[in-house]
Amino acid sequence: MTTLALNRIKKSFGNLDIIRGVDLAIGSGEFVVFVGPSGCGKSTLLRMIAGLEPISGGELSIGGERMNERAASERGIAMVFQSYALYPHMSVYKNMSFGLETAKMPKPEIDKRVRKAADILQITHLLERKPKQLSGGQRQRVAIGRAIVRDPKIFLFDEPLSNLDAELRVQTRVEIAKLHRDIGATMIYVTHDQVEAMTLADRIVVLRAGVIEQHGTPLEIYNRPANRFVAGFIGSPKMNFLDVVASDVRDGGVAIDIAGKRARLPIEGHVAEGAKLSLGLRPEHIGTEGTGGLELGALTVVHVEHLGGQTIVYGRLVDGQSLTVALDGQRAISAGSTLAVRIAAENCHLFDEAGDRIGH
Amino acid sequence: MSISGTTERPVAGGRLRFGDGWAGYGFLAPWLVGFFLLTLGPAIASFYLSLTDYSGLGAANWVGAENYVRIATDDPRFWTAMNVTFTFVLLSVPLKLIFALAVAVALNRGLAGLSFFRAIFYLPSLVGGSVAVAVLWRQVFAGDGLLNQALNALFGFEGPSWISNPSTSLYTLILLAVWQFGSSMIIFLAGLRQIPQDMYEAASIDGAGKARQFFRITLPLLTPVIFFNAVILTIDAFKAFTSAFVISDGTGGPIDSTLFYTLYLYQEAFTNFRFGYASALAWVLVLIIAFFTAMSFLTARFWVHYDD
Ligand SMILES: Nc1ncnc2c1ncn2[C@@H]1O[C@H](COP(=O)(O)OP(=O)(O)OP(=O)(O)O)[C@@H](O)[C@H]1O
Ligand SMILES: [Mg+2]
Predict the structure, then answer these.
(1) Which of A107, A118, B157, B288 is within CB 3.0–4.6 Å of A124 for a Cys-Cys bond?
(2) A282 domain-assigned
(3) Is B305 on the interface with A (CB under 8 A)?
(4) Which of A196, A215, A233 is the C-terminal boundary of a domain?
(5) Is B194 exposed, middle or buried (0-12, 13-18, 19+ CB in 10 A)?
(6) Are residues A50 and A179 in the same domain?
(7) In this predicted model, which residue has the larger pLDDT, A347 or B242?
(8) Apex CA B4: angle with CA B3 and CA B9, to 5°?
(9) Model confidence over B20-58: pLDDT tens digits?
(10) B94 pLDDT more than 90
(11) Both A296 and A183 in a single domain?
């Protein structure tokens, strides 16, 4: 069931078009993550849903009702700000109860809700404190608590973890996932951390310059990126792109020459003979052993990073194009040596000159 | 040798520190001279004089606490001055605060031409304390002044002479003081700018309307600034002098209705040549201001919210 529908949503600041026609339907209970590079309009889109930013065009509906003109407090949403935006002069309890008091909810009901939220977030012992007496992680919880007590249909998070240190980030990420399972509310989450996106999302929405580039489950996006931008954005280390030329186009396949060898890859749609294509290869799919697949030739190693569980190799192919390879485990590889590298054909992504996916 | 052997610090370091110290005092000298000669010295002298019958000429005879006793027990004009001054302080300070805050909030609403209006509203504070404006004020509120001419032209109403009527004269001075709300307003504006915008966004999601946002978010977060302004304005108001002096021609009239404390003190010193008594009056004022300031700081922790 659709909870939230965006229909040709647009936003301009002056004559600057920031959101340029976004269509999206979000189902009840879904966890949707907006990702995209800085300045692509993630926060703006979220704030339009929240009612903090007027909508320049299109329609926003929540629960089937048009919401464009409704005040933020009437949309059934709650928002967790990147800065937490806790009221510094109010206790934790008051921070959470403020909205309910504003709504003139009876005191016992307020108390019940605040204590329940505090219990879920394990901040009951902090209720009397002021925000300044809390650590960053505790403030984060209060901010989430303030959202929970409103019992919203939709939770909105704008980069809620970006002010936390690495360890706390992981811990809080897990807790947000758990919270989503437990209360089952719809959540929209903005981040530019792709690990957060991959781990939390039921569905990832990749934005660039105010338009949706692709949306789908994390694995759909990872396995079948719709274009070069998405392919490069999701995945770490970043996908390699090698310049290749299409030749011998026939039977739903195309031949490409790489490292002096010719390989055939299946494609959908049509490419012109001699078209310049981009061959996308994820570093973790490139290997050194085995036979078959695409031989990429000898890689001259420029730099190696030993991560313990993984060894990242940066190098150059025979034709001078750079390539990053992520190998499992610990490898005795040093700069200056050469490696023969290869990749399975099904892990190759082909993009046309416009950047659109043409591969299988 | 043995001395330098016991200290780990190289001799050169000590010399450098010594030289630095004198250079530092050198740079401080103008301030130090000013402080001792123009502030501390006169203060001590005036305290001594307050215990004498000094008249400005001749000898200062020691009278002990006599001046203070007379202030407390046998000086009706002192109590008149107290009455006038307290009325002035208790009305002008809150009014000025409210006015300054209201204008600051209005200007902060992202009005076009903010800097223009900010300058316009600040202007009275630049010129308002001057003698020229006090003279102008007298023209406005005199019997045949601008105000009455306007009232007459608009409503056919014959106004009294506001400044020569003892029941209204003080209020024209309060009005003049409130009119100079500019510097408090500038400080309020700066304070309003400090409040993060997302606080209001969170509050609007929490359903708080503009009024509730103002009373529950803006006002509490502004309390340090309100406190600061209140203390500064209170001290200033106790010391108010120029406007009353000019408008009443130094008399504090009509019938002592604008006899500010400082004006009374001035008359005692420079009209009646009772420097000893005036010095005692000055010290009483110091104590009153100190008392109010101390009270403000003591009560501050109950209502001022500090973020750190
Ligand atoms: N009030 C505003 N007036 C003018 N331009 C704005 C305003 N708010 C945002 N923008 C512009 O809109 C674009 C999108 O901003 P937005 O904050 O949505 O980006 P974002 O995707 O959230 O980026 P980040 O990851 O850095 O938070 C930016 O180019 C920004 O400069
Ligand atoms: Mg943002």
Answers:
(1) A118
(2) yes
(3) yes
(4) A233
(5) exposed
(6) yes
(7) A347
(8) 130
(9) 678 888 888 888 888 888 888 888 888 888 888 887 777
(10) yes
(11) no
Supply A135's token pair.
């650590």
- The count of CB pairs under 8 A between chains A and B is 62
As a whole number of angstroms, the distance between CA A205 and CA A190 comes to 10
Nearest ligand to the CA of A20 is 1
In one letter, which amino acid is A12?
Answer: S
What are the two backbone dihedrals, phi and then psi, of residue A197, each rounded to the nearest 5 degrees? -60, -50
Q: Is there a single domain that holds both residue A319 and residue A334?
A: yes
Nearest to B86 by CA among B250, B261, B231, B247: B261
The DSSP letter of residue A210 is: T
Q: Are residues A252 and A307 in the same domain?
A: yes
| Per-residue pLDDT band at B242 (split at 50, 70, 90) | confident
The verdict on A303 touching B (C-beta cutoff 8 Å) is: no
Residue B189 contacts residue B223 (beta carbons within 8 Å): no
Residues A263, A341 within the same domain: yes
Domain CATH number, residue A128: 3.40.50.300
Q: Provide the greatest CA pair distance for chain B.
A: 98
How many structural domains are present in chain A?
2
**Residue-wise pLDDT tens digits, A118-158:** 988 889 999 999 999 898 889 989 999 999 999 899 999 99
Closest partner residue to A85 (CB to CB) among B198, B207, B212 is: B198
- Report the candidate in A270, A240, A243 with the shortest Cα–Cα distance to residue A254: A270
A177: enclosing H helix or E strand? helix A166-183
Question: CA of B104 to nearest chain A CA: how many angstroms apart?
Answer: 22
Q: Tell me which residues of chain A have a pLDDT lower than 70.
A: 1, 360
pLDDT band at B61 (very low <50, low <70, confident <90, very high): confident
Q: Are A180 and A302 within one domain?
A: no
Amino acid B7: pLDDT: 45
Q: Domain end: A205, A233, A261, which one?
A: A233
Residue of B201, B204, B205 to mutate, testing the A interface (most A Cβ within 10 Å of its Cβ): B205
Residue A245 lies in a domain: yes
**Structural domain for A329, as ranges:** 240-351
Q: Are residues A219 and A342 in the same domain?
A: no
Instruction: For residues B148 and B241, give the distance between their C-alpha atoms in angstroms, rounded to a whole number.
Output: 26
Q: What is the CATH number of domain B66-303?
A: 1.10.3720.10
**Domain-wise residue ranges, chain B:** 1-49, 66-303
CA-closest candidate to residue A41, choices A204, A211, A270: A211
Per the CB < 8 Å rule, is B204 touching A73?
A: yes
Q: B195 CB contacts (<8 Å, ≥6 apart)? A: B217, B218, B221, B222
CA separation (Å) from B163 to A107, A308, A360, B136, B264?
A: 55, 88, 93, 12, 18
Q: Which percentage of chain B shows pLDDT scores above 70? A: 87
Report which of A182, A280, A267 is spatially closest to residue A228, judged by C-alpha positions.
A280
